[in-house]
Amino acid sequence: MTDLVWKDRKRIIFGLPWTFTKYGLSEDRLFITSGFFNIKEDEVRLYRIMDISLERTMWQRMFGLGTIKCCSADRTLKDFEVKNIKKSQEVKEMLSAYVEEERTKKRVSSREFLDDDDHEDDI
């Protein structure tokens, strides 16, 4: 298994981790594992994440939780959420820093994720 810099579980009522969804972050990938009998494991390379936002409802704020929304160029995962996690602001900032670092390492810009249909001038 890859060395993780952060891990947590999706939380439910009162901020308790009574779910079967786990999140993990390494220096180059984000992992989402869910399920009990049938387990689904997703991962997204950080350089494929284009935008990150944080949402905290009143209920989430009461229990110290938040949801990170990610817009991704990953074909299987597409846009996704890291739901109901503790220290969501800190995790968002950490994720953002790792995303920028990976994008710089790989020399990736957002232009590389645009479809050819978006370029009307290219002929």
Give the topology, please.
Layout: E1 6-9, E2 21-25, E3 29-34, E4 40-45, E5 49-55, H1 58-62, E6 65-72, E7 80-86, H2 88-106
Antiparallel strand pairs: 1-2, 2-3, 3-4, 5-6, 6-7
Main traits of this protein?
123 residues, alpha+beta, PH-domain like, four-stranded antiparallel β-sheet, three-stranded antiparallel β-sheet, 2 helices, 35% strand, globular, disordered C terminus
Give a quick rundown of the structure.
With about 120 residues, this protein is α+β, with helices and mostly antiparallel strands. About 20% of the residues lie in helices and about 35% in strands.
Q: Would you mind describing this structure in some detail?
A:
- Helix content is 20%, strand content 35%.
- It is α+β, with helices and mostly antiparallel strands.
- The protein has one domain: Pleckstrin-homology domain (PH domain)/Phosphotyrosine-binding domain (PTB) (PH-domain like, Roll), CATH 2.30.29.
- The longest helix is centred in the last third of the chain and has 19 residues, at 88-106.
- The protein is globular.
Class by SSE composition: alpha+beta
| Overall number of structural domains | 1
Looking across the biggest beta sheet, what order are the strands in?
1-2-3-4
Q: Give the overall pLDDT as a whole number.
A: 89
CATH superfamily: Pleckstrin-homology domain (PH domain)/Phosphotyrosine-binding domain (PTB)
CATH C-level category: Mainly Beta
Number of helices: 2
Distance between the termini: 45 Å
Radius of gyration: 16 Å
Strand content: 25-35%
Percentage of residues in helical conformation: 10-25%
CATH architecture: Roll
- Give the tally of β-strands: 7
CATH topology label: PH-domain like
**What is the H/E string?**
EEEEEHEEH
Largest sheet: 4 strands, antiparallel
Shape: globular
| Unreliable stretches covering 5 or more consecutive residues | 116-123
